[in-house]
Design brief:
Order of helices and strands: H
Shape: rod-shaped
Largest sheet: none
Helix content: over 70%
Structural class: mainly alpha
Distance between the termini: 160 Å
Number of helices: 1
Length: 164
């Protein structure tokens, strides 16, 4: 076999050196890329861990808030039941007082005529009984009688009073 010319050997050596440099350059870039990927993976893992911790804390906070809201709901329901019972009691009381209020309303409506009647009775009482007169004289007898006057001598003459 014949030996290749020196120029071809130099070109082949230059080519091998260039390939070797290129391979070293690519290996350096690969190492840098691997370091970058590892660093990014570690950052992502830490970030994922932080997000999981934050999510867990949010879950616990949600559970605490739900428990507080359930407690508040129970308290509110108890207050509603209490207020409903109070309303029922007041409705019952109103039902009991309504007839009395209607009676008082009727009394108030009749007050002016009753006041006039009482004033008239007071005036009649102020005038007093008629003076004693001859029992056989003119006018109606002063005693309460049914025609049997002998048996009822104990009856008093009619006198106005204000016992209403």
């Amino acid at each position: 076999m014949s030996t290749p010319p020196a120029l071809q050997i130099r070109e082949a050596n230059a080519h091998l050196a260039a390939v070797h440099r290129r391979a070293a350059e690519l290996e350096a870039r690969l190492d840098a890329a691997e370091r970058t990927v590892r660093a990014q993976a570690e950052r992502l893992a830490r970030h994922d861990q932080q997000l999981r911790a934050a999510l867990d804390e949010l879950g616990r906070a949600k559970d605490r808030e739900i428990a507080a809201l359930q407690e508040q709901l129970l308290t509110s329901e108890a207050a509603v039941h209490s207020l409903q019972a109070t309303v029922r009691q007041r409705d019952d009381l109103i039902g009991q007082l309504q007839p009395r209020a209607e009676l008082l309303w009727d009394i108030c409506r009749h007050q002016p005529p009753l006041a006039r009647l009482l004033a008239t009775l007071a005036e009649a009482e102020r005038l007093g009984p008629l003076p004693a007169s001859d029992p056989g004289g003119p006018g109606p007898p002063l005693a309460n009688s049914t025609g049997e006057e002998g048996a009822m001598d104990h009856l008093q003459p009619a006198v106005f009073g204000t016992t209403v």
